[in-house]
Amino acid sequence: MSRTEYKLKGVAEEIQKTYPQCEKIDFLAVDFSRLDIYEEIGAKLNSLEGQVKVLVNNVGIMPALPEYFHLQAPPGYHQRLINVNISAATNMLSLVFPMMLKAEVDKKNPVKGVVINISSSVSHAPLPLLSTYSACKEFINWIFKIEFYLLEL
């Protein structure tokens, strides 16, 4: 899933050429800055009959310029950062994780699923002039760590 359908088609073709044994690659173009997209995404995922094996979280936006949090930001600025950098990964994890946990494991498919989280080094230390972005990225690190810790219990 990505905003740009032609890029998704190109990646799907590249994966198919590199890994011809890959049976099916599905994609959906969505704008992760919106919150009304998850019903459509859920329907698309359900149509795959539980065959989601990989989730790559690479959705994110970074401010174009450093920001002083206390100064007036454009309307919706912080909410857009939160929608893309927190809500997208959290909602996708909540949609895909149960499907992966239900997956059958056998010799052909020894792994239920893989989640790859691509984040940013700004999550490792607070950055005063990138405060919202830095906090969003740290949130993602924590929620993924917590969920995977719970799997081990």
How far apart are the first and last residues' alpha carbons, in Å? 31 Å
Question: Strand tally, please?
Answer: 2
Give the biggest sheet.
2 strands, parallel
Mean pLDDT: 86
Structural class: mainly alpha
Total number of helical segments?
A: 4
Beta-strand fraction estimate: 5-15%
Task: Report Rg.
Answer: 17 Å
Overall 3D form? globular
Low-confidence stretches: none
How much helix is in the residues? 40-55%
Order of helices and strands: HHEHEH
Strand order of the largest sheet: 1-2
Explain this structure.
This protein is mostly helical and 153 residues long. The protein is 46% helix and 5% strand. The chain has four helices and two strands; from the N terminus they run ααβαβα. It has helices at residues 5-18, 38-46, 77-102, 131-152; strands at residues 54-57, 114-117. A two-stranded parallel ribbon has the order 1-2. Strand 1 (54-57), helix 3 (77-102) and strand 2 (114-117) form a beta-alpha-beta unit. The longest helix has 26 residues, at 77-102. It is globular. The mean pLDDT is 86.
Walk me through the topology.
Layout: H1 5-18, H2 38-46, E1 54-57, H3 77-102, E2 114-117, H4 131-152
Parallel strand pairs: 1-2
Task: Tag the structure with descriptive keywords.
globular; mainly alpha; 4 helices; two-stranded parallel ribbon; about 45% helix
Give the gist of this structure.
This protein is mainly alpha-helical and 153 residues long. The protein has four helices and two strands.
